[in-house]
Amino acid sequence: MLIKSGSGLMMSLPIWIFWIQLDRYQAEFTAMRDQYMRAGEGFIICYSITDRRSFHEVREFKQLIYRVRRTDDTPVVLVGNKSDLKQLRQVTKEEGSALAREFSCPFFETSAAYRYFIDDVFHALVREIRRKEKEAVLAMEKKSKPKNSVWKRLKSPFRKKKDSVT
């Protein structure tokens, strides 16, 4: 998928779609899925606002991402799909928002049928990925900065002063 960034650059996003019923998947699919999940930089977790069971599976899928990647710091965007079918709604927007707050991730309600907010979801995912990358760079820079050692602080009162008059 090609997406235009906020700065006008065109970016290519590889997309893998996992349509998983978490209670019924085969071993060979599990290995392939885990491999793609380890390689992925971010995830869009979708549920249908017309299917409460799919909403409950979101938490399981988030835990699966954690188990495979061994970090809770993976960029995620939560999406309630089928917003065009409000008359069939089983999951409120407030429930989706609350779960997104729990996950500390952006939340959207979309309609794939009418393409409502689809681009916004992908832009949000790119922003989340970039934010995590910047955080990682800052953390590495912080670790690599020389720190004042205890030895330096102990020696400092005994150093000769350059500007002292004798």
UniProtKB/TrEMBL annotation:
Protein keywords: GTP-binding, Nucleotide-binding, Signal
Cellular compartments per GO CC: membrane
Compositional bias segments (type: Basic residues): 144-166
Record has Signal as a keyword: yes
Region (Disordered): 140-166
Any GO BP: signal transduction
Molecular function terms from GO: GTP binding; GTPase activity
Tree of life domain: Eukaryota
Name by which UniProt lists this protein: Ras like without CAAX 1
